[in-house]
Amino acid sequence: MRAVLLGPPGAGKGTQAARLTERFGVPAISTGDIFRANVKGGTELGRKAQEYMNAGQLVPDEVTNAMVRARLAEDDAAAGFLLDGYPRNPEQAVELDSMLADLGVELDVAIEITADFDVVTERLLKRAEIEGRADDTEPVIRKRLEVYATSTAPLTAFYAGRGLLVQVDGLGEIDEVTERLVAAVAR
Ligand code: B4P
Questions:
Q1: Which of 16, 139, 140, 142 is most buried by a 10 A CB count?
Q2: Which atom belonging to ligand 1 lies closest to the Cα atom of 35?
Q3: Model pTM?
């Protein structure tokens, strides 16, 4: 399976990617996780990404695209992958097409987890209490949702136009959402 996972911040992309990777036996590649690991490790990439993440902005495309290109070329992604949080704007989607063309493969499905903004805001504020992530504060969550609406939401039409889009309701228990996703992908 070669899939991208779309949806607003807090829809459950990271949560579900970790479960789907086990079901489908392909690596989950989360750009957010890679950035956070680099921030923690104090790398050059982490330094570049941190200010954007903390402000709820997208990390610049040239940084993100190069990172994904390198990751997709690794051996474990040859038989499939689940991209969590990439692409996040139309420019990244076009770049992903070029990466896949260079690898001689095609995307099978774009899965969108839907959830309304009130619900996701509540989830992220709850996570803030548990994990204390720098971008889970109320003003930054608002900014992330704005960026989602402006930059990422147009990808729904982009992938629908190619017949690749599958939409799954992200509300409800985590297990329920996983089962919906598995059923939707199997269709
Ligand atoms: P990400 O790490 O991708 O974070 P996110 O979209 O905000 O969602 P996340 O995966 O964390 O949350 P989830 O929905 O699983 O991005 C962070 C930042 O990195 C971005 O703002 C940007 O700066 C940068 N970045 C990442 N990718 C980029 C790209 N391609 N280009 C440029 N910049 C990029 O879950 C949220 C919470 O909800 C969790 O606490 C979870 O436990 C809970 N939850 C999940 N499902 C639930 C359910 N069914 N019921 C109740 N709670 C649930």
A1: 16
A2: 19
A3: 0.94
